[in-house]
């Protein structure tokens, strides 16, 4: 009898060196525990179809399908034959499998009527979806209900067939076979979930859940297994967040109460417009937090143009009134410089301490970026170190050694998703005591994401737009199907310029040269042309449809002073059109810009498109956003663009964005460099479960703050939310 396997047993002891090496190399699976927690992506059922029509070109897929017909024909370019096998999904969807070379044995094996799992990369040839030389395993001799009869497919003997996240070198049936071998001797760990929680929430025990998720006996058993394992993920995250919040409540911070008759009152008196009710309410919440002896940790979310910057500035002025300094960290020099100009304009004499026209209780506003000259940098750093600069704005240059504050009381992080957690924490570490922290984002955050990622922050939302903001109309321009629509888009842009307005043209790529932070990674080789680039599009527009207009170029590879000069020229109205990358995505504010044309719009994410179009319609004239794409009608990319065009509700779009992204990314998997630990939990579909897990976590942590009476649970949480990710949650 084989020795029992535990979560720590190396796979090479169970499945052999060669297979273990492949699992480690391609899927990062090293132990029995790694494999047992490598859950199926989905389950196919014998006789039921996989929807072939929904497959995207370039996708690595495994489909359950039935052979319809085979055909052999000679190859045109070289000697030998080509075997084409047409498989169907039972609903009319067809997929062609192509095999090169003389393979008569394969033709005999792939007889019409046989069912199998076929794995490969989806390509397209003459309008037909196909898999070239796919891996496959057949599920019996003929009938869809016939049991598998050989050892190779014993793991598929049940009615529900698990389909695993796989690699070309390690297809799903190899993983299923390895799982069967491991489960035959696997001893599950002690169930870490307290018995009273299991009973009150009607959750199955861990051992049963781990077995049923891989080899489900019934659909009901599978549902119960998945629910238990989802609970473990949600509970681990919520326990971590609630624990962090509980500890943070005991940290000391210097209170920064409002000072009557100070800078903040003077600023409010000179504001040229009235604050919205939302701005006043959120401002009152922040003012109360700042006056407390514990550090504020608040997330401020609001649609593009909802007035977050004014709310943040009022908080900064309250801290300056209380004798401290406030720092704002922006993701780009363009945005940092714009914040600097905007705040100086809003403050007027209140931001010019030491100058002839300064107000009586003025402060100084300093900009610290990497492109400052040596003399200007020395002067700015001196103002920061002495405390003369009450408000300090900058990019990650604020994090460098040599940038010292006299008394840092508030850190404002703008567009926090653009920063790594280490960068944000480095700025907070520049204070003697933990400073108050305000995190801002213009990307609306779905409720479950806020609960799961920002659960240790208080969340404030600005939902009102200030008076005077104009509506933005959005339309998809199908360039491939209707080229005349694209011609009309350029004419529409010219009409806006002729009316005295300005326009943006956005491209997904800069152009030749190394990649930059504001362009997406290179595309794969699925036959699509490279994304359009700013440096290539700008001259074509200048010579073609936008001939005679004043065109500027802006992207992340330009020197900082050149970027600033271009932005200033555009803001001053000296340029008609700005051809740019997503460097304009956040914070750029030119009220006279009324139209934006986004080229290759399908290459951008939903939230990114929503952010981009928020750059127009910021004045009294209505905004227009045209999303140009070659994506085919009915494709997932086109449906995504249609959704963006159909609504201006950022929260609806945020839910759609969440649905289409890898959900693990919200836990910082991409930032921390680790594999995502949200294997089953869906932040969109499991909102009720997450809410229940949070309620149980709050009850448990109030009774046992450090989980000292629940050591198995503490160990489980540490495994599911490892130290790096716990720090991400804490610093987020």
From TrEMBL:
Keyword Nucleotidyltransferase carried by entry: no
Protein name as annotated: Probable DNA 3'-5' helicase RecG
One function term, GO molecular function aspect: ATP binding
Region: Disordered, residue numbers: 508-531
Domain Helicase ATP-binding: 289-462
Comp. bias intervals (Acidic residues): 515-524
Domain Helicase C-terminal: 485-659
Membrane-spanning residues: none
Any one of the GO BP annotations: DNA repair
Keyword Hydrolase: yes
Pfam families, sorted: DEAD, Helicase_C, RecG_dom3_C, RecG_wedge
Keyword set, alphabetical order: ATP-binding, DNA damage, DNA repair, DNA-binding, Helicase, Hydrolase, Nucleotide-binding
């Amino acid at each position: 009898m084989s020795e029992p396997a535990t979560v720590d047993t190396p796979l090479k002891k169970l499945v052999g060196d060669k297979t273990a090496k492949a699992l480690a190399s391609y899927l990062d699976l090293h132990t029995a525990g790694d494999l047992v927690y490598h859950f199926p992506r989905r389950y196919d059922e014998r006789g039921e179809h996989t929807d072939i029509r929904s497959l995207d070109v370039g996708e690595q897929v495994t489909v359950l399908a039935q052979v319809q017909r085979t055909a052999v024909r000679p190859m045109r370019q070289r000697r030998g034959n080509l075997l084409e096998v047409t498989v169907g999904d039972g609903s009319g969807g067809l997929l062609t499998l192509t095999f090169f070379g003389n393979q008569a044995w394969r033709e005999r094996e792939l007889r019409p009527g046989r069912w199998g799992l076929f794995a490969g990369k989806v390509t397209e040839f003459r309008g037909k979806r196909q898999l070239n030389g796919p891996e496959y395993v057949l599920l019996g001799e003929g009938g869809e209900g016939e049991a598998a009869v050989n050892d190779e497919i014993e793991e598929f003997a049940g009615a529900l067939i698990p389909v695993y996240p796989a690699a070309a070198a390690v297809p799903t049936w190899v993983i299923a076979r390895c799982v069967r071998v491991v489960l035959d001797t696997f001893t599950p760990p002690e169930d870490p979930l307290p018995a009273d929680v299991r009973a009150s929430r009607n959750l199955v025990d861990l051992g049963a859940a781990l077995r049923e998720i891989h080899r489900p006996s019934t659909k009901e058993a599978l549902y119960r297994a998945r629910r238990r394992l989802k609970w473990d993920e949600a509970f681990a995250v919520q326990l971590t967040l609630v624990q962090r919040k509980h500890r943070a409540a005991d940290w000391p911070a210097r209170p920064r109460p409002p000072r009557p008759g100070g800078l903040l009152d003077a600023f409010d008196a000179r504001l040229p417009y009235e604050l919205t009710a939302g701005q006043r309410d959120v401002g009152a919440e922040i003012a109360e937090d700042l006056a407390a002896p514990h550090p504020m940790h608040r997330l401020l979310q609001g649609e593009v143009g909802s007035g977050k910057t004014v709310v943040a500035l009022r908080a900064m002025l309250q801290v300056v009134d209380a004798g401290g300094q406030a720092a704002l960290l922006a993701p780009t020099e363009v945005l940092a410089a714009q914040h600097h100009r905007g705040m100086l304009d809003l403050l007027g004499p209140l931001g010019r301490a030491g100058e002839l026209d300064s107000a009586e209780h003025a402060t100084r506003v300093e900009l610290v970026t990497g492109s400052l000259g040596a003399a200007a940098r020395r002067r700015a750093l001196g103002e920061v170190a002495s405390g003369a600069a009450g408000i300090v704005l900058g990019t990650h240059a604020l994090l460098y050694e040599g940038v010292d504050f006299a008394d840092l009381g508030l850190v404002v992080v703008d567009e926090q998703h653009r920063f790594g957690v280490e960068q944000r924490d480095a700025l907070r570490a520049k204070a003697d005591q933990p400073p108050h922290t305000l995190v801002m984002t213009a990307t609306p955050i779905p409720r479950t994401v806020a609960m799961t990622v920002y659960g240790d922050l208080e969340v404030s939302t600005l939902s009102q737009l200030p008076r005077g903001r104009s509506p933005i109309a959005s339309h998809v321009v199908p360039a491939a199907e209707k080229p005349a629509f694209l011609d009309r888009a350029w004419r529409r842009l010219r009409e806006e310029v002729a009316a005295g307005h300005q326009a943006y043209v956005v491209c997904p790529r800069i152009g030749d040269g190394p990649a930059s932070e504001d362009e997406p990674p290179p595309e794969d080789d699925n036959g699509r042309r490279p994304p359009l680039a700013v440096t290539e599009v700008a001259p074509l527009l200048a010579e073609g449809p936008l001939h005679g207009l004043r065109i500027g170029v802006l992207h992340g590879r330009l020197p900082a002073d050149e970027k600033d000069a271009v932005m200033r020229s555009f803001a001053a109205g000296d340029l008609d059109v700005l051809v740019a990358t997503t460097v304009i995505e956040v914070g750029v504010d030119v009220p006279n810009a009324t139209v934006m044309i986004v080229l290759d719009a399908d290459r951008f994410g939903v939230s990114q498109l929503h952010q981009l179009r928020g750059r127009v319609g910021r004045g009294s004239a209505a905004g227009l956003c045209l999303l140009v794409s070659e994506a085919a009608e009915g494709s997932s990319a086109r449906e995504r663009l249609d959704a963006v065009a159909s609504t201006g509700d950022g929260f609806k779009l945020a839910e759609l964005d969440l649905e289409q992204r890898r959900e693990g990314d919200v836990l910082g998997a991409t930032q921390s460099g680790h594999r995502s630990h949200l294997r089953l939990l869906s932040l969109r579909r499991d909102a009720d479960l997450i809410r229940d897990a949070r309620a149980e976590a709050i009850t448990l942590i109030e009774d046992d703050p450090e989980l000292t009476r629940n050591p198995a649970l503490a160990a489980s949480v540490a495994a599911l939310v490892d130290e790096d990710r716990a720090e991400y949650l804490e610093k987020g």
